[in-house]
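Fold this complex.
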Amino acid sequence: MTLDFSRSAPFTMGIELELMILSTHDWNLIRGAGDLLALIEKEKHAGDIKPEITESMIEISTSVHTDYATMLCELTAIRDTVVGNALRLNLAIAGGGAHPFQHWSEQRIFPKERFFHLHEMYGYLAKQFTVFGQHIHIGVPSGDDAIWLAHMMSRYIPHFIALSASSPYSQGMDTAFDSSRLNNINAFPLSGTMPFVADWNEFNGYFDTMRDLKVVESMKDFYWDIRPKPEFGTIEIRVCDTPLTVEKAAALAAYAQALARHLMLDRPRAPSLDVYRVYSFNRFTACRYGMQAGFIDADTRSRRLLKEDIAETLDILVPHARALGSGSALAEIGASLDSHQNGSGWLRDTFKQTQSLSDVVRLQSRLWAGEQRLQPVR
Amino acid sequence: MADIGFLPSFPLAATNLMLVGAVLLCGLAVGQIFVRVLKLPRITGFVAAGLVLGPGVLGLLDQTMLGELSIFVDISLGLILFELGRRLDLRWFTRDPWLLASSVAESLLSFLFVYGTLRFFDIAPVYAASAATIAMATSPAVLIMIVHDQGATGPLTERLLALTALNNVFAFLLIALLFGFVHLEYRADLLQAVSHPVYLIAGSSGLGYVAFIAARALARWLGKREDSQFGMLLGLIVGTVGCAISFKLSVLLALLAFGVFARNLDRDHDLMAVEFGPGGQFFLVMLFVITGAGLRPAELAVAGAIGGAFILARLAGKLVGLGIFASLSGITQKKALLLGIGMVPMSAIAVVMVQGASALYPEFGAKLSSIVLSAVVILELVGPLATQWALRRAGEAEPATRAAA
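Structure:
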């Protein structure tokens, strides 16, 4: 049996975001997903709002967009729905890749068959999976394009990690990483990267073998950094931490969209195994150092700072952003580059000022609700 | 043989500390037996231990000993009410006014139903009203302890704490007002009847406010360090309890006000949310054992019928009040039912407050006690179980309950 790849219009995009549900008493995670979803279901709302693996998480997703501005608009509407209903229950919502001081052992699995299955299979890893990521979908016309684009995008994975990083604190400690969240994902047996297959046909061969060997049942079992999503007709970039604001989340999707357009139309190079040879190293330094990370360019065999590579990419993307109408989104990414500021920087600055992780979470939730600008404010 | 001066003379003089240690150990041991053997909440065990040791059964703890231990009651009530006050987030009621409506409804209906029931039993209005006021409040001590023991977190737990905080506020204010009527009942003049409630309410909340200002100033100076803020708050709580007693104010109202101010007026978030943890546990165990010792099983036989009717009327009031506003406040009828059952523990604190009136007019206290005490006996033992059941049914308790020490 082969996987059918649904066609979708090229350069369409969509976002899924996993969010924290917080107690306004002590700003720890709270098991509020059930009540919050029940309340949200009662009203008509934009996008899709679903439970996630533990009861203190909720997942929101946008519909399919070509335009950055309309996507941001929808995302803001979904955000307001979730935040507004949470307030009625005296709960708060926040972005960020990991809750700074929750303890994984206190998490509870959301009562749903698939989640219980995951918990049984992965044990404590499933509960440690209480981390919060952004998934970006980019539409592609065919399965072959999906495989090609996934290989080409792999080079840029460190960009997405560094720009979105917002999980410096984990289990009450500064991890020294900008994105500690990805370390939790590395533990899963089917994490990592898609094999270096040439096209959709070869991919199907690989998938069939894995299924015959009973390693996987469906595409959902692969936790790769980028994976094709045949039912949507997209590739899915899964390395981003959930950013601290919806604006940043939308800007990251616009960056992926412009990058896809550049790669598909300009065809700057061919997929190369060399990219995968340096992949783990580049990915690690991006997690560890964020924008200040070093970056090895497999193509030119040169070494530079990751932020220089992002800046150069942004220059290349200018005409594509213009064509897609996402100039302002890319300008925002450029600005964060100039200020060396990603979510992790903001969180660390805020901790420096408040000296309390629960204050950090409180301000993080205000930032998410759009009540505060992206700068440390007491 | 000559007297050896450094040896103690027999029989040994029991010291207060020996008493405290013994009470604590007995309580904990019986609590463990309840958890392990009977699968009941350990609080019920603490109360049962007190009941058996107390004057009602074995009489090992007599009235003088209980008097000496009363300081623990005051401190633990102070800790609990401060903690409860910190759970009362007034902004929640502006975001969801129906929550406030459901709180007013459940308090009012428990009052009215109980008042009506007691009037049916031909109990004079002033006593019926005092007893009905006691019926309004849910026991914060039982609730906080069960929430802690069950590791409960979630929206129902938060709602339960907020509603309990509010029905305690209502009950305390009403009791202060009732003092006025009690004065009138016993022919005191009108001035006293009016000024006493005013002094209690204004004085106690004023004291709570002063304590909050002091706490905030000290917190700014100490910085965000949990250990130092913990000690500071503990000191202020105990000090405020002492001040309230000296000024003949309401300890309960003052500490509740302190907590509410700390939650709602601390704009810069200088105060940290500290948990009183193991240290607080000690006081709570003492509180429950001493409460148990104050119970008289004999009361059950005397006023059994009234007690039963009182309990049913109270529960009906809570369930109807919460049920009416459930869907408007965004919760299901099932959740409203669980909330009502979670609120079954009755506040022995309200009883303590009414005893303030007994001090002024012993006859009043005696009459009131005979009305409510049978309900108190039943609810002290059954209440913890009801709350525990509600939290578990709501799925907010830890699946494997920590067998807490």
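Residues 190-222 of chain B form the longest helix (33 residues).
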